[in-house]
Amino acid sequence: MTRTLLVPGLEGSPAPHWQHWWALTDPRAITVDLSDPGSPDPIIWEAELAGQILQHPDSVLVGHSLGAVLITRILAKWPQLRVRAAMLVAPADPAEHSRIGGFAPVAEHALSVPAMVIASRNDPWMGFERLRQLSRAWRADFVDLGDAGHINSEAGYGPWPQGKALRDELLARSATDPDGAHPGDVLTLTRRKTTV
């Protein structure tokens, strides 16, 4: 059974965030417990995420915001870790936000696993064109949710069944493309969310 490791960002993902909902509704999902989410330390967070990957090899990583950036750091530093795929939701730009500046620079090369970037056109944490550029560098599929804010609870993303469906699609692709060496497809989806 493939586990889903949910990787929160700055301040964690408390209710009613979609990651909190996902952890409650998916028996295969585990939320990665990251120390001091209000003042993150990249070295500590990397060690904590790597530890969870070692405990749950061949998991799919689902990161939000700074959690998505953390995933790219782990995959760049330790490509030998056994990760099946990575879903990067609304990555934040550490170069543009001082609270997360220690996570800069963001890796800009092909990731070692199949990956999918879920993007919003009006995300205050990273510009849309910058995210498209990174998605191409990562060789990740790119999902355009339109004007979806930061794809968090403030933007209306509490229960988010579409997120699970995208994870399942990514897992299906990873089964046919295990080395992740595929050009990123661009997908445009209608915005489907559930407010809480």
Automatic annotation (TrEMBL):
Coiled-coil intervals, chain numbering: none
Please give the SUPFAM superfamilies that the UniProt record associates with this protein.
Answer: alpha/beta-Hydrolases (SSF53474)
Task: Give the Gene3D superfamilies listed for this entry.
Answer: alpha/beta hydrolase
GO MF annotations in UniProt: hydrolase activity
Q: What is this protein called?
A: Esterase
State the species of origin. Answer: Paracoccus aminophilus JCM 7686
